[in-house]
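Hey, can you fold this one?
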Amino acid sequence: MHILKIEPEGSIEQWTLNREPMRNALSRELVEGLRQQVARIGEAGSGVRAVVLTGAGDKAFCAGADLKERQGMSAEEVRKFLQDLRALLVSLERSRCIFIAFVNGAALGGGTELALACDLRIASSRAQLGLTEVCLGIIPGGGGTQRLPRLIGAGKAKELIFCGRRVGAEEALRIGLVEGVGGLADARAMAFNIAANAPIAVAAAKQAIAQGAHLPMEEALALELQFYEQTLASEDRLEGLKAFSEKRPARFVGR
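Sure. Predicted structure:
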């Protein structure tokens, strides 16, 4: 059984964490499989513009780290796993591809951290998200203490982390933890919508947002201009103008 199921369709792919009996928990093998796939779509000519990431079944998106596997790991092996997980999540953020998490069930601990590292999040009505690590005597170690406050604000993030509290789909939407509540079809439609736009422009916008979010406004605006210049020299910009004048959909090629 492949622990990571890859389903390509045109310029998007659906990646399914395929460990349903283990609630799609993050094992060392699964983290390495995800790392390899992120590297693959980052290669020139891959053609993948958006990825929908979800979990097998209808109970869990990802239950976090595989605690059964962890019981047999030394402290040094735990540190290595955490290092690999953190590197994977950073690679999602830095990828030119857009990642959409479809949170189809429980996303706890590292599962929520995986969703946080994606660009966008859609939750099913069954979704539950939470950084519950304090209930196990640890703290979020995959970036949760840093990404969650940046997304929903420090106060609300502290409440969720300190209490180890889970939130359902509607509350997650209300506090800004997810961008929508819906089904897999909604996440896929969003992916196709993004993939239809100029890939150089989408990638530039992603990096401008990520790199400028915590800069002073003057520096952030200068950074935005640098990324704008990247799009100005592209063939896709000319195609966009031509398609607009001809009243037809643009055919972007990523150059």
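The first strand starts at residue 4 and ends at 9. Let me know if you want another pass with a different chain boundary.
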